[in-house]
Amino acid sequence: MLEVRHLVKDFGRFRAVDDISFVVPKGKIVGLLGPNGAGKTTTIHMLLGITTPTAGRITYFGREFVAHRQECLQRINYASSFNTLQGRISVWENLLVFARLYGLTNPGPRIRELAAYFEIIDLLPKRYWDLSAGQKTRVNLIKALLNEPELILMDEPTASLDPDIADKTLSLIEEARRALGVSILYTSHRMDEVNRICDEVIFLDRGRIVAHDTPLGLTKRIDAAQLKLTFDGERRVVEAFLVERGQRHGFPQPHVVSIDTTAAQIPALIFGLSERGVWITDIEVKKPTLEDVFLRIARGTDDVG
Q: How much is the average pLDDT of 250-268?
């Protein structure tokens, strides 16, 4: 659907995007993540034709974007929580304007179909600026689907939404992907939603791709884990065993020990304590999350590439 090869963007002597390559396959959701200033917005702008690349190639549906710009743009769309439609006119009028811009000759049925799908039929006659944040997000999603795009570029579509509305928005995105087969390039700072909906994740840092994998594959690159054990036995026995094994640990409660370890060592620690007569009554394992990967990249504290 979308293929990016060796994309570069310079602003004077500053290189905002540095030789990145990736693919968004048909029917997949690919996350484009990174700290502020990583190059995400510049990349999106190049994919939309707002900014001209310094070097590299963008291909949509096997067609070179630079040579077939209009044809490609007719088959994609863009949605962002930071975009606002015209506030003084109705939702219906807003969608009608965009439908005409997209070249739809009879947009009425398409608008009503999508409004019914996203359950906002009753909002069509209302002024856009009278809507809630969640309602505006639904309208923006409808706007992005008017031309029946094969690929949508989504820039933080749930930003500024409360958790309930954000969850419903994600469900709508998941359903749109399932029902309509649309591909999505998705940017967000919310790692929980990226983990939920993205098939692949690309991490940018200082304009370069530093990691590219599935959400699970990325978290597996961090070997650290935290093991919390509730036990029935003598604390000195537990402490002596952990000191002997060189494990960093603490006792948040008299019969609870928290151990900073690795996933590979967890079975040996549990069995080792059992062999020393410590009765373990509860086990809690906290493994790295996508947020941990994000923080390591943002802080430059580790290499997860």
A: 94
